[in-house]
Amino acid sequence: MDYNNSYQERNSTSNNIAEDKCEEYYKDKGDLIRFGFNEKKSNIPTSLFFKIPSHLRNIPDYVLIKSNEIVRLVEVKGFKGLIKIKIEDLLSYDYWANIPETKLILFFYDCEDQKEIIIDYFRLKQIIVFGDCKINKYWDNSKAYFEIKKQQLI
Question: Where are the beta strands (DSSP E) in the chain?
């Protein structure tokens, strides 16, 4: 499955490799607790899911709790080639990133190189603003997104 498939097709398989890799990565690094919706295992029909307000629909995937450290909200994204972040998702991430006593991080999993890239949300926003990221639109829903080269995050 890849970006050429529709939302329904992309979510028809039973696992999300990026989330599996995130869970594997954090296995011994703290308590990683499922927080947001799991589109692969959800019993919410797609037609109803998109009626949920975006701030709630875009709840980060996990909460990471480490002793003596700030609580981290973890948003997980898999990618091949370019990283794509919807502009409307950034508005939701702004909300979650500004909750006191938490920090929003993004766990990107490169499905081609089979490597993770972990970045603070505010650093990602700097890259988007100052990194000459192109704006494009998805073919299936016309939603605008930023194209980010993985080299920009490393």
Answer: 31-34, 62-65, 71-79, 82-86, 102-110, 115-120, 134-137, 144-149
Domain range list for the chain: 7-153
Cα separations (Å) of 25 from 1, 20, 32? 22, 9, 10
For residues 43 and 134, the answer to whether their CB atoms sit within 8 Å is no
Nearest to 37 by CA among 60, 11, 8: 60
pLDDT digits (tens, 9 = 90+) for 34-89: 998 887 777 788 888 888 898 898 999 999 998 888 899 999 999 999 999 999 99
Phi, psi of 106 (to 5 degrees): -115, 130
Is 3.40.1380.10 the CATH classification of the domain at 7-153?
no
**Phi, psi of 22, deg, nearest 5:** -65, -45
pTM above 0.85, yes or no: yes
- Kindly state the tokens that stand for 122: 């505010």
